[in-house]
Specification:
This protein has a domain at 1-43. With 87 residues, it is α+β, with helices and mostly antiparallel strands. It is rod-shaped and about 80 Å long. It has three helices and three strands. It has helices spanning 32-41, 45-57, 61-78; strands spanning 5-9, 15-20, 26-31.
């Protein structure tokens, strides 16, 4: 679960994020710039599962060729002619 942050500003005017502990005390104070960079470096669980699905969806060239060959054989048996595809 993501930590809830309190937004504050430093005396110099830089945006700060303060992470609070359960008892309300400050656990960590970071500049927005540093916290944002750290957030962007990590992938969320949703991004990780999407990447796994995309990798599983990619088919190897040999498998594609085998699938294409079986379609050709099936067409010959049924007598169906290949139709022109529209672009």
């Amino acid at each position: 679960m993501a930590m809830r942050r309190t937004t504050m500003y430093s005396s110099a005017g830089k945006k700060l994020y303060a992470v609070r502990a359960a008892d309300g005390t400050f656990k960590d104070i970071q500049t927005y710039e540093r916290a944002h960079r750290a957030d962007m470096a990590h992938k969320s669980a949703a991004e990780k599962t999407a990447a796994k699905k995309a990798a599983a969806k990619k088919k190897s060239p040999a498998r594609k060729a085998a699938k294409k060959a079986t379609r050709k054989v099936a067409r010959k048996k049924t007598g169906v002619k290949k139709t022109a595809r529209r672009k």
